Amino acid sequence: MGLGGCIGMIAVGAILTFAVDVKTDGLHLHLIGLILMAVGFIGMAAYVSVLKRRRTRAPAPAAPVVEEQRYYE
User: Cα dist. 60→47, 51, 56 in Å?
Assistant: First the structure.
């Protein structure tokens, strides 16, 4: 599930929770909306953490240290 799917689940869950006012026996639309929003947020967090892990780069190799020779008299 991509980022768009997660955002879509959050939107549908919010609509079911806050905008729909239908009373049904045995089907709690508010609870279904809360579950969809929770799953959407969890999916978004998982997607972002995987994306963040993919974008990290190995540190660039450091330049070799060259020490100057000092001559003491």
Answer: 26, 21, 12
Show the tokens assigned to 29: 């639309």
- Reported as a single tens digit per residue, the pLDDT across 55-71 is 566 677 777 777 777 77
Residue 43 · residue 9 · CB < 8 Å: yes
Question: How many angstroms separate the CA atoms of 21 and 40, rounded?
Answer: 22
Q: pTM score > 0.70 for this model?
A: no
In this structure, are residues 39 and 19 in contact, taking their beta carbons and an 8 Å threshold? no
Considering all CA atoms of the chain, what is the largest pairwise distance in Å, rounded to the nearest integer?
A: 99
Report yes or no: 43 and 13 within 8 Å, Cβ to Cβ.
no
